[in-house]
Design goal:
seven-stranded parallel sheet; alpha/beta; 4 domains; Rossmann fold; Transcription Regulator spoIIAA
Length: 500
């Protein structure tokens, strides 16, 4: 597994680059996940919203409580992801600290940056990784180290941007230096918006937009680039070019940094070649020869060229564990140092049986209980937050408090949890807010119903499925399982005029 680690704020460019490379790598058959250790001022829900606002999906993302295999490789799209973790160590919970230690203790692919040049070595001393290989945009950092690697946006997963123009000019003022530079020219652009963070000391006379801003790219006509301090990899240049928007290069500093090079570069496709080369180096399939290794001293580094050893880590889904190369999993487990079993559950007992019709809760519960008692096995529960599952999903986490948990919101408009009636959401919000792993769900529940939500369609589907399963072992009735939403059905489907 390749763990792409992000410790930045939810609207930071490094979060987006990290998610884009994660998505592209998975599409290319390289198993990767985005591992987010949340900033103290934000919840996991803030990060999920940022991703869903920009991309067509939100998948392979895990937060805070992250299982790391001994043979996993971690990658950071900027050294600051490691140095920030070191600098703000006291802000993290015990669970977050454990995850960071595990993520940064083995092999690391580190994309070169100079944000914290003196702190980064201290951060490496804290985490003490086994092996670090650098990649570097050698145009931006001519004195940097590592094979050449350019951070490129992966536009194929972008949502279509909706034009909703609210001002002519956009400025980026997400740190103190950027914001101060904007003040010198803002008077020339009265119809403007400045993207900021709410924690900053802001001039109230400006049109300050608190990040993250939904559909940001559709809200302005022209991007005004004013950064005079060093800029490693500006994204909005490329996004505006992709959309055909005008860009004003309003800069006095002639430094040839990311701002200069991204202004000159055209649109490109992501090149994952340097990443795969580094992964193959870690696996011993190839060697990267530096000043310490050359073609003339292969004998010293011969171990790097040996075939990959048998794996120490194994992962599988629960629904496939009885048919792994024809061998029962309980015979397979002793062959590995660590085994991760991923179980897909959207509730306990009847709730899971209804949502995942055809499954048997009792058998699943008995099996994962046995598996979790095996020393080298870790069970991880994956859940999807939907209109139905969110009604009782918290009971699953209460039943299994010591298991690894991962949840993600559904992308089906009709099944989104925020489409529930307000009275039900008001009851659920304090419950989820009290559970650390699930507090991000409260951000979903606070959202208004989607404009395109069609309650008639979702209820019609469920009722028809109930009829299909009638007189079978999986016969169940929607109103027996979820009686709390029947008033919503009556109000919106049966007699909407009477209730309106």
């Amino acid at each position: 597994m390749l763990n792409i680690v992000c410790t930045s704020k939810p609207a930071d460019g490094l979060l987006f680059y990290s998610y884009e490379y994660c998505s592209n790598l998975n599409d290319k058959g390289i198993f990767a996940r985005l591992c987010v250790v949340t900033h103290r001022d934000f919840t996991s829900g803030d990060y999920t919203k940022s991703i869903l606002d920009k991309y067509i999906h939100c998948k392979n993302v895990e937060f805070n409580n992250i299982f790391v295999g001994d043979d996993d490789v971690s990658m950071v799209l900027g050294r600051s992801m490691i140095s920030l973790a070191h600098m703000t160590w006291n802000d993290y919970s015990d669970i977050q600290r454990t995850s960071l230690k595990n993520l940064f203790k083995n092999k690391i692919i580190s994309v070169y940056s100079e944000n914290h040049p003196t702190i980064y070595p201290e951060a490496l001393m804290r985490f003490n990784p086994d092996w670090v290989i650098d990649l570097c945009d050698t145009d931006v950092y001519p004195n940097g180290v590592g094979e050449h690697f350019e951070k490129i946006i992966h536009f194929p997963i972008y949502k279509e941007v909706e034009e909703d123009i609210q001002f002519d000019h956009l400025f980026l003022g997400t740190n103190k230096e950027y914001y101060q530079t904007i003040q010198k020219v803002i008077g020339d652009y009265p119809d403007h918006g400045i993207l900021t963070y709410p924690q900053m000391d802001l001039n109230p006379e400006n049109n300050n937009l608190q990040s993250p801003v939904p559909n940001l790219l559709g809200k302005f006509k022209t991007y005004v680039y004013t950064k005079d301090t060093f800029d490693p990899a500006p994204r909005i240049f490329q996004e505006c070019r992709w959309l055909g928007k005008e860009i004003i290069y309003h800069r006095t500093n002639p430094v040839q940094d990311g701002g200069y090079w991204y202004w000159k570069r055209g649109l490109k496709n992501q090149d994952i070649g340097p990443i795969t080369t580094t992964l193959n180096t870690f696996k011993g399939k190839i060697a990267i020869y530096t000043e310490l290794a050359s073609a003339n001293n292969k004998e010293q580094f011969g171990n790097l060229l040996q075939p990959e050893p048998p794996p120490d880590f194994f992962t599988t889904k629960l629904d496939s564990i009885n048919n792994i190369e024809g061998t029962n999993l309980f015979n397979y487990i002793p062959k590995y140092k660590k085994v991760l079993i991923e179980v897909s559950l959207d509730g306990i007992e009847k709730y899971n049986n209804y949502i995942k019709r055809g499954t048997n809760w009792e058998k699943i519960y008995n099996k994962i209980t046995v598996l979790n008692k095996i020393p080298n096995v870790q069970v991880k529960i994956n859940s999807v937050v939907t209109f139905f599952s969110v009604l009782h999903l918290y009971e699953l986490y209460t039943l299994f408090p010591n298991y690894l948990h991962h949840w993600e919101p559904t992308q089906d408009t009709n099944l989104k949890a925020n489409n529930l009636p307000e009275d039900i959401k008001d009851k659920l919000i304090p419950i989820y807010k009290s559970i650390p792993h699930l507090e991000g769900i409260t951000d979903i529940l606070k959202l208004p119903p989607d404009k395109n939500f069609q309650p008639k369609e979702i209820y019609k589907y469920c009722i028809e499925k109930d009829e299909e399963y009638k007189d079978t072992q999986w016969e169940m009735n929607l109103w027996d399982i979820f009686p709390e939403i029947k008033p919503h059905y009556l109000r919106t489907v049966v007699e909407p005029q009477a209730y309106n």
